[in-house]
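A further point concerns the way the authors explain their paired sequence and structure data. The central task, working out the structure tokens from the amino acid sequence alone, is never made concrete. I therefore recommend that a typical entry be quoted early in the introduction. An entry of this sort, consisting of the sequence and the corresponding backbone structure tokens, reads as follows:
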Amino acid sequence: MRRLLPLLLLLAAVPAAAALKWNDTLRDVYVNGALTRDGQTLVNEHRLAYLPPSGEAWIFDRDTREVSTADRALFTFNDDRTSATTPDTFATQRADKFAMPDESSYLFNNVLIYPHQSHAGPMTEEALWATAPIWKSICEHYTPDAKVVDQLRGAKPARVTIVFATWCGDSKRAVPRLLKALHEAANPLLQVELFGIGPDFLTPIETIRERRLTNVPTMIVERGGREIGRVVETPATDTVEHDVAIILAGQALPPHRGRYERKAQIASGHYEHRDAKGERATETWELYETNDGGLLLHSLIVSAKTPSKTIETFAALDGRRAPDYIEVTRRDGDHVVRTRASADRGKWTVRARGDERGLTEQTLTVPQTLLLPATLTYGWPLLRGTIDVDVFVLDEKSPIGATEKARVSIAGGMIMPLARKPKHHVATRTMDYEVSTDSALQVPTSVHLSDGGERRLLDMTGALPRALPAANGQ
């Protein structure tokens, strides 16, 4: 035993072999022109793996455009088959080159792996499982909270319409788990309906408009033909089924923290708004650190005259203080418009949903700074310390926004003026706004808009970081 002990200690000190994680991704696979759902596709960075019902796994490498085969036993799946691991390096046998008809399609011999084309319209649960078999696996392996199941079991008569898309990751996480909770509740008084949204959030456009859909999944709860609440995309509580149970009980959901991860709150405060007509609103904001060393701003503007009219903003700067993503949601009674933009490889993809057009999308170069409904973003050019900038401007005139050239003149505690060049005009406009900042706070304390409106900081706790590195080498 004494001889074995050093060997055992040595083995214990050897680090575990590195592993690659592959995540399930739903694709439409055609073999000899016929669609098949019997296999599974997974992705790992630049590689896609296709595991047919039997035989070896096929590995497609986007960088080399080569397809190779590997032993499918190398893939070790988790319980619900939403992910698998393989050794960091494993033996493969090169088969040949493959073609990519577009950036998301793979063509090799008689096999075409194509972006998933989701069903649009009413859908049965059986059809859902047939379309997305892994969703059924998620449902079967999920254990909902027993207290939530009891709440659903005791709910009064209602209709729960689950609107989703099988291309949507949030739908994949939420819908199978909600269905499992409803199955276990087995409440005959709850009528559950499934409704699919087609590719690119475009079909059926009539339903998207009538149901005021901005994102999927959306769980709409109705009683007596009247909507009593809805859950949009992510839950306000710990799970979607818990949110649904709270709505069914006639209770108000807690404030939604948004879908964005964050660390500690570093500052918060309130602004008073007054527009050119004298109408007032109150803005509540919080600023957080993010996991990558950036900043996340959350702002909610509520009209004093019409409390149902609100503008909610999430906006983030990455660790280099460059714009990372935004989400702006405008609500006016039942009318909702949500605009989202995110940065990816130098491009800024902007999508607006929920207005009468259903969906608007554009792709721009990532801007250097932002000018959003949230007042704190008016100070971000100062934080960046730049002079000539590309500003992404999102205002009430355009739910999709636009990038405009701007020159920011910094003098003491003032940012003035921000000269923007509107499209189709040569001359620049005069001052759009003037921001007075408190050097100790490093946030706008007053904003005077060119149309006569103004904003004034009422109170603040905490402070922004003083030293901010410049983005994009500026």
